[in-house]
Amino acid sequence: MRFKVILALVNDEYQDEVIKSAKEAGATGVTILNARGEGVHEQKSFFGLTMETQKDMLLFLVEDIISDDIMDAIYQAGKLSEHGNGIAFCWTVDRAIGLESQLPILEKDAKEHYF
What we know:
By secondary structure, the protein is α+β, with helices and mostly antiparallel strands. 29% of the residues lie in helices and 34% in strands. It has helices at residues 15-24, 67-77, 103-114, and strands spanning 3-11, 31-36, 44-46, 49-51, 54-63, 86-93. The strands form two sheets. The protein has a four-stranded antiparallel sheet with strand order 2-5-1-6. A two-stranded antiparallel sheet has the order 3-4.
């Protein structure tokens, strides 16, 4: 099997919908990490204190064949077309271990998409 990691940085208000949509598109699980970021635009300040936007970083390890469907679901659910709502990207995984509990689902999905 070939895998990709999808990393999505989304606003907290969209996190649940992004996870739900990704799972509906075929993701079998997610790892959630708290993150903060700084983009091209300056951070806003209030009385000298920088106002930082917290984002949740969602990591999905997915079968290569369904990665585009999951990316599309994340884009829609996270409203990523709107300024400041986050980004998502993916990259190829060379090796993955510890997936024994997910193998039956992954094998079923692979058979449906490849054959």
